[in-house]
Amino acid sequence: FPGPFTDVVTTNLKLRNPSDRKVCFKVKTTAPRRYCVRPNSGIIDPGSSVIVSVMLQPFDYDPNEKSKHKFMVQTTYAPPNISDMEAVWKEAKPDELMDSKLRCVFEMPNENDKLNDTDASKPAPVLNTSKQDGPMPKPHSVSLNDTETRKLVEECKRLQAEIMKLTDENRHLRDEGLRLRKVAHSDKSGSSTALALRDNGSNSLPSLLVVIAAIFIGFFLGKFIL
Length: 226
Description:
Layout: E1 9-16, E2 23-29, E3 35-38, E4 41-44, E5 49-56, E6 70-77, H1 85-91, E7 98-103, H2 111-121, H3 139-142, H4 146-225
Antiparallel strand pairs: 1-5, 2-4, 2-6, 3-5, 6-7
């Protein structure tokens, strides 16, 4: 049975009688509520065949669920002067019955088959080559979905944050450079002052020694004179 199973799906079953006698047949199923069989019983003449339509009712298809539906076609030779089909099956002996079992298979159409069917049903587009200079852009190259748009917005926010961070670092480095230049200037001024004081100290040292020498000389001269 080919899907989708949103509507009635009909499959034909062909029964053929290869014998030289009339054959009675009956079609049974393990899921009678899911299938409608027409005709579900009858008689096939020698060398003839009959078409049985099996109609599957709509249902919710689950690909993970394995199909357990089965059909069985029972046959037996028809007695002469048959009048009651139910009596034939009730009176038939087990060794006079023949049966064939069939398992139901559900098949969903492939995505490629759907695309091919859709493309085949659409008319071929007509291109106006007189106004077309180059190849036409693909639809996905000019349209962005919500996910790509959100990614672009987040990337812009991240770049703005990086720019602000770099601006702050640049300002901090500029302030640090000014501070270092001021410190270097003050260090130069302090060193020149120290040099001047050292020079003054070195210049006043000989005068102090002269004064001390004069005191000692005066002291000794006073001793000798007295």
